[in-house]
Amino acid sequence: MNRKLRMGMVGGGPGAFIGDVHRKAACFDGGVVLVAGCFSRSAEQSKAMAAELYLDPARCYAAYDEMVAAEQKLPEGERIDFVSIVTPNDSHFEITKAFLEAGFDVVLDKPMTFDLDQAIALRDIVRKSGRVFALTHNYTGYPMVKLARDLVKQGKLGTVLKIVVQYPQGWLIKPIEREGAKQAEWRTDPSRSGAAGCMGDIGTHAENLTEYITGLRIKEICADLGTVIEGRVLDDDANCLVRYDNGARGLLFASQISVGELNGLRINVYGSEASLYWRQEDPNELRVYAPDGTICTYRRGTDAIGALSPAAARATRLPFGHPEAFYEAFANVYKNATDTMRARMDGRQPDALERDFPGIEDGVRGMQFIETVVASKGQWVAFPKA
Amino acid sequence: MNRKLRMGMVGGGPGAFIGDVHRKAACFDGGVVLVAGCFSRSAEQSKAMAAELYLDPARCYAAYDEMVAAEQKLPEGERIDFVSIVTPNDSHFEITKAFLEAGFDVVLDKPMTFDLDQAIALRDIVRKSGRVFALTHNYTGYPMVKLARDLVKQGKLGTVLKIVVQYPQGWLIKPIEREGAKQAEWRTDPSRSGAAGCMGDIGTHAENLTEYITGLRIKEICADLGTVIEGRVLDDDANCLVRYDNGARGLLFASQISVGELNGLRINVYGSEASLYWRQEDPNELRVYAPDGTICTYRRGTDAIGALSPAAARATRLPFGHPEAFYEAFANVYKNATDTMRARMDGRQPDALERDFPGIEDGVRGMQFIETVVASKGQWVAFPKA
Amino acid sequence: MNRKLRMGMVGGGPGAFIGDVHRKAACFDGGVVLVAGCFSRSAEQSKAMAAELYLDPARCYAAYDEMVAAEQKLPEGERIDFVSIVTPNDSHFEITKAFLEAGFDVVLDKPMTFDLDQAIALRDIVRKSGRVFALTHNYTGYPMVKLARDLVKQGKLGTVLKIVVQYPQGWLIKPIEREGAKQAEWRTDPSRSGAAGCMGDIGTHAENLTEYITGLRIKEICADLGTVIEGRVLDDDANCLVRYDNGARGLLFASQISVGELNGLRINVYGSEASLYWRQEDPNELRVYAPDGTICTYRRGTDAIGALSPAAARATRLPFGHPEAFYEAFANVYKNATDTMRARMDGRQPDALERDFPGIEDGVRGMQFIETVVASKGQWVAFPKA
Amino acid sequence: MNRKLRMGMVGGGPGAFIGDVHRKAACFDGGVVLVAGCFSRSAEQSKAMAAELYLDPARCYAAYDEMVAAEQKLPEGERIDFVSIVTPNDSHFEITKAFLEAGFDVVLDKPMTFDLDQAIALRDIVRKSGRVFALTHNYTGYPMVKLARDLVKQGKLGTVLKIVVQYPQGWLIKPIEREGAKQAEWRTDPSRSGAAGCMGDIGTHAENLTEYITGLRIKEICADLGTVIEGRVLDDDANCLVRYDNGARGLLFASQISVGELNGLRINVYGSEASLYWRQEDPNELRVYAPDGTICTYRRGTDAIGALSPAAARATRLPFGHPEAFYEAFANVYKNATDTMRARMDGRQPDALERDFPGIEDGVRGMQFIETVVASKGQWVAFPKA
Fold this sequence. Notes:
Four copies of one chain form a homotetramer. Chain A is α/β, with parallel strands linked by helices. Chain A folds into two domains: 5-139 and 333-358, Rossmann fold, CATH 3.40.50.720; 142-320 and 364-382, 2-Layer Sandwich (Dihydrodipicolinate Reductase, domain 2), CATH 3.30.360.10. The first copy, chain A, contains 13 helices and 14 strands. The first copy, chain A, has a nine-stranded mixed beta sheet with strand order 13-12-11-10-6-9-8-7-14. In chain A, strands 2-1-3-4-5 form a five-stranded parallel beta sheet, with helices on both faces. In chain A, a hairpin with a 5-residue loop joins strand 12 and strand 13. In chain A, helix 1 packs across helix 12 (326-345) and helix 6 (143-153) crosses helix 9. Chain A is globular and about 65 Å long. The mean pLDDT of chain A is 97. Strand 13 of chain B pairs antiparallel with strand 13 (295-299) of chain C.
């Protein structure tokens, strides 16, 4: 596929945070070009965004279904190859469905859908469509997270015994959703966010990161969801006890009211032979704790990594000591997803490294997680079948 | 009281860890001298220890009741002023009772007693005796812990909303209690340790530290106690959800099987106006997180501390940058307890700074904590009245 | 200027490290598109690179002068707006001269030229040309470096008294230039690198960072240049004593043989009222030390930054806690340089924030620095006039 | 020697910092008891101190020579075994001489003497006396410093190529010596401190630490001594280039005007095979950097240490994770020095671990260092013979 892939976008209008991240991440490695979009439900806003992005106005749409129809009609050499969907959760299902059924590959922001029923329905649609579907659980894009996963897989930790994963933030300590903060508005609104607040927005990242690194699956959860700010409807702070399918125990907690915490996703995995620690705000390092009391700090890009994790090596661009961070990890999701698209366009099977991006199963797990923690109300609840 | 206080000791024979810590801590500031002891139930071992300590053999006893009787008979200018009791939990009650009733002040190692009934009974004995009673929850002796408490008390954090306290260790990842490790033997033996393992040994420290810093009291707990090592009877890993009396929520967890963790007590207190973080292995620093995203790191001994916390200033000996650590914190418990003894010998009321050491109420809380987490079995249980 | 700027590139062929960084950095914010290039002296290599980048083969050139001529002839709506020059030092002067004199804006990799004479000559050419000229001293693109500069400028540090700046690396601890390592080859070859090795490659970054943050200028230097690896001609390790024009003293040292150091640029600026510390491998934080012993850690993107440094705020894209790193800092140089180009295309003066990128004077200082440290031979040498 | 050693002290009166440290350090491990002292040139102050320490007033002296005479006359079972001398530098020589020649072992605070001539003279006296002589370069007492030395000795670093050692402090940023600060007064007064200020007080520690860890000897120095605070006579900030006897290069710098630095002694030793880093304010850890980019953090008290360094293991009392710090390191100097005294009292040769404390040669090196840096005036000066 000797050309740039053509990307369309739904959502990501003026002022949107995650839409801009998707655009930069998709184009980061030079293999993708944004050519079309429906950036807002407001035609005017959508146009404004297209202009800001120097896009052809003819490829700027006022509604996603209009976009599907129009792009389908374009000749093969012009129409988009895939679409990025970065709207709030409540519209994910219908938009994704439309593009998949029209034959487009899809990259979708998380959480995947509004509820678990939609998630399961979407899984059927994805399977039936045969299209590439990626879900941007971006934290699994970090090289050192891939190294962590590979160390666990190689048995370096022995049996995983305990997991402590946390995702504290503090930005919702005031009711800024009532003061016009756009990012806060939809996240605290159950009609757009779904059944969970903090747990849907960031708890799902913690869940996904844990299952990605350890390969374990949550079996049951006892969750204590709290709403600290008066008048807020959804949880803004939540603490869970967790049991995993191999018998391991642990804690998973997240918060939007932990003052001073910025984007504090971090994880300790304790094994019978060694343990590991990774922190999103210091992403170029991974610490491994040995039973003899030494700590081995692995650093992205160094020789030691290449030998242990081809996935981590592939996910790195800069030489050691030249830090990579959030955008580059996000770009790694796009890189693997679009390499998989290219492989299939070229008529070959993508290899395991290329297929290393979150997809429909991650999305279903995430929605199961949300339903489970909301249902728990302080009691142990088993993860639902799906 | 223009002389050194004379200390006796029960327990702390050859090879004991905590007995030696008590001796060094008590004598650290030059106001205490060890003059008598019953270091072991074995007369021979007790003598060996006395010799190693260059003690007068006449003041070395083979049984604690013999020691009580003999010391009582000595003239006022010779007999011990107080006793340190550093035996395993199961004998704490009877030994402490004997010394208190014989009119001696007591410093006792934690956890206070074998069970809650004993703790409540001991509280009555302490009250009736009118003696000074100190319990070595030594982590509250760290200057930066005192600063943390004072910042909370001064309202610098606003309302406390969430608390994450953890105490991971990894030294029991193998069944070393079956391989002759003395420290492991009694800690994993319910006939000596009581109803809890990990939670009694170190979980109580986490509980005590939290209540000391925040002034809050645990209201209810949902605890998931685990025994990872096959054949072990007591918990060696435990995770709790916690609710506090002001409505705050949190997590408290401890472990003896977290490979690579040494003595990892650490605490995050999140408030409505600011948050704080302290870690026992890096005890000379306290971090305070402001809502504007800055982190203020306070360092022991600096000018900034003096202005905020006379208790922290009093608990420090060395100029800034010359680190103090575990022994010095332990010595601070002794310093305040023995200063309180001196005040009372001198016929004056000890002031608030002198009375700043853990005592009988801390001990009762600790035993309540143990009973609660053992009773929980994964359900919410209210803290018992006492 | 309602379109993407069209960039050309000279250098940056297959396997080149810094060329790829320039391409990603230039395109990062969506305002630049690469349309032409002469990527290698080998026509074949150049073509291969163009293909890899999905460029129009017609805009791929085999020689830079051919490129100048061809691009000049293109209609205004097609030809490049500016060129990025990323070849080894020895060809910088002639290529830059050619593009400037042909009326193109230039972004040039550092060190600026082969020697100081060329640097001074280039300064004349830049001035005469009236074109925008940017030199990628990329470390000044980090937001927290801009905050540091602004804090110094605002007098928060009082008088700067002492500066310790270091740039240790360890990758040249073996003679890998003799084993085919391309990056090592030209950097250790005086015919391509110029008079200095380590000091030219990274010492100049340390010098530039220091002068950028403090606003001071080096007055004299006493340098001890070492060549640790046998057979190497240029310095691979160097230590300097420095005196600044305000009377401050300090140390500047760099190394390529410091095993275990990756890209360890870091700086301490000690002032009469406060001090600061920044480290390239942990770029999202800046520490400020107060005389009362507290340390204030500023974190990129937080409210505290916006109030103190509009330049830092402008140089940040992601919300706090979502780390940015090397690419984003590099992109900031391009952003300000291309915003300045746009301003001038639009017929307006760029403002101070837009003009905040390194240029010809930084380049001259860098070449003066190299000449001075090479001339020193362990004696104090004054910085030359230029 | 089945009893506590009896210590006398000269200096260390009310308000003295280091005298109290010596007393606590000496008595820390229970093998030493303070029985006599001449704590001040003022008889009244000396008495006040003795009372505060609960000493027998009969053993409190008003002059050191009186003390020598009186103690000599006491029966063997009562008189002191050794003396600790903790006066300002200018009186070290005469007092030490008097005690040595009267047959007492001596522990002396650093810097050893007022100048190099005295140091050389003292060396002769020590040799002739046959007494144990210890100099409290206390930083070599840290277990992780001993581990560092042993790793170098075992060849784990290969050839040492570069050393960066620094000792920044900030407490003299104001002229507090003119405002009654006792610690500042004598340190800034050349009639009491000798030829160097900052370099004598703390630069010598940096020099001693470096030579202890690496086993190398400084060959020549180029020093830039500065006096930042107007009116001060001695250096309060100093930067040196250094060359070692094996050809290694490095930097050594120290400061008393580096605002925000507390007691920031730290060292990087870069070798051909690995590098190490240690920082006094975080003394329980030692980092070793491998060429593959991993960092191995060793932690005091863990299994890994015992295998590598019997000296580090011997110098540790508490289990891992229970931090030790400044006092304990200082106590290690006393422990080894007094174990050496005991060995000789018992008629046996002390072993290598017991003899591991700084002595007369370290003192001579320190005085050579001071003379060299003062003589340098920005030029390279060879270390004098001695």
